[in-house]
Amino acid sequence: MFIVELEHPRFGEFQLDTLRTGIMAGSPCPVEVMKKVQADMHMAEVTICYGMTETSPVSFQSETDDPVDKRVSTVGRVHPHVEVKVLDPETGRIVPRGEPGELCTRGYVVMLGYWENEEATGAAIDRAGWMHTGDLATLDDEGYANIVGRIKDMVIRGGENVYPREVEEFLYQHPAVSDVQVIGVPDERYGEELCAWVRLKEGQGLDGDELRGWCKGRIATFKIPRYWKFVDEFPMTVTGKIQKFKMREVSIADLGLEAAARARTA
Length: 266
Hints:
The protein is an alpha+beta fold. The chain has helices spanning 2-6, 31-40, 68-73, 118-124, 164-171, 208-215, 244-255, 258-265, and strands at 23-24, 47-51, 58-61, 77-78, 82-87, 101-107, 131-139, 145-150, 155-157, 160-162, 177-187, 191-200, 227-230. It has two domains: 2-151, ANL, N-terminal domain (Rossmann fold, 3-Layer(aba) Sandwich), CATH 3.40.50.12780; 154-265, 2-Layer Sandwich (GMP Synthetase, Chain A, domain 3), CATH 3.30.300. Helix content is 24%, strand content 27%. The longest helix has 12 residues, at 244-255.
């Protein structure tokens, strides 16, 4: 929503000086977008919320007087009376501060369960009452959380873990890029490769080779997408959430990677 508002062709005609605060939530906010909202929409006190429907729905939030870098690059700190921990998805052990792992929350905000679905409830909430969000996050020494991606979205390319959110944040810095989503697609040699779906700003022209060249020397080679798809919109749910699984299905079909996909599931 904020991206669309910032790119409205008549954006400069609207009087926004009286705006001060607001809330951003629903999906991760790119750092560059947050900076523009603060500067161009005059929302210097905008805050970011993080949570899920199952946690009523917010468990983290930044504050209006948090340092600017924290309000731009994190989702704030955990709400009062809510517990949080970050676990290694493979071992279930708590990871050191600053290292990514699955974010888990516990407290009054956690739902009782999914309606008449004990199996799904048991998969989401463990016996100790911890809600396993499926989101990958880091916690710094001051308790600020940064959502780095979804466990199921993480790409393993040639043994290297790649978090799509990191690559997306980097690509947002290109002046011609309006929005971008990065996914993993099957590859017979490396297991997975990166594919970037890019929506350009109005009037901009760019191709994959140009973007790939811009990336070189700025980001690790294994994090540079191999495939590029330029689109006008992304597949979304009715509530506006990006459907990366559909993007993956379309990409596999468009790129002719069905054989590689079958090999990975064999």
